Amino acid sequence: MVRSAVALLSSALLLGGCGAEVASENSGEVPERFPVKLTNCERERTYERPPEKVVTNDIGITEIMFALGLQDRMAGYFLSDGQRRGAESSPWKQRFERVPHLAERMSMERIREAGADLVFAGWNYGFGESSRITPERLESEGIDSYVLSESCRAGETGKRGIMPPLEALYTDIRNLGELFGVPERAEKLVSEYRSTIERAAPDVAEGERPTVFLYDSGRSEPFTSGNGGAADQIISKAGGRNVFADLDDSWVSVSWESVLRADPDVILINDYGDETVRDKIQFLREHPALSRLEAVRQERFIDLPYAALVEGPRNPSAVRELADFLESVPGDGT
């Protein structure tokens, strides 16, 4: 039973896809509502002027801007080739085509060339000490930043995730609505997303929930989602149980031995990267040990695009799609 979630369109997505354009504020005068103060990653940030040349990194982050109708405030986006399939399936495909694609990998050189006045990215979604692109460095060059809330780091551990992932999505939508002067549109999106999830969420007892393993990538060891990632809450809201929900991180590498011990009922495949969904399923079927997993033997595969499994406006429809699939799956390994 292989199921592909190619079309993740719902009224919630269409709301952001065909809303009115946001009027520009580049008249030279700073609106009276500024300065705007927002709490982002448990830190208060002050924005003195409305951003006019926003640069984003990663598909989910870019789609948040599109869902809010803020494409006219964007100077461009960074998107890796591994996410191009997601852009092709996006409800905002035309906006991806109209807004400049700056490069695959975020760099200070391209940020400067774009004349960015704000960078919207996240930790491990463009921001990182190893890449030498951090909010602090941007600030030193006079560029504002906003950090994706799903990626916020907890204390000194560096692990990501300080709030439930869907709450992180609602927080970012509301914050950006305030920053760009479209709070009503932001609240409407949040209301639509909540409604989509509530309608999709099944009434399932904990012991009856099918177990789900999210397979992102990896041959020697798999990359998956812990409890800090959007995928974990998508699985939970859809009536399933993430087999790695006890890991306090968003995206993390585990061992195949731990997957074998969990013996999931369902394998959720992240349609992302150089390998296709077909490639990933073939690897699981042909592996001597993994081929014995319940989900593999029963052909219980479902795939969702990367953009639906990281924080972004496709999350609510991902809950609905996965919930529909899990309805026919026996729970708790039975």
From TrEMBL:
**Sorted alphabetically, which Pfam families does this protein's record hold?**
Peripla_BP_2
Superkingdom classification of source: Bacteria
Give the SUPFAM superfamilies listed for this entry: Helical backbone' metal receptor
Q: Could you tell me which residue ranges the Fe/B12 periplasmic-binding domain spans?
A: 53-333
In the UniProt record, does the keyword Signal occur? yes
Sorted UniProt keywords: Signal
PROSITE patterns reported for this sequence? FE_B12_PBP (PS50983), PROKAR_LIPOPROTEIN (PS51257)
Q: Would the keyword Signal turn up in this protein's UniProt record?
A: yes
**Which residue positions does the secretion signal occupy?**
1-23
Family according to the record = Belongs to the bacterial solute-binding protein 8 family.
Q: PANTHER family from the entry? A: IRON(III) DICITRATE-BINDING PROTEIN, VITAMIN B12-BINDING PROTEIN
Protein name per UniProt: Iron transporter
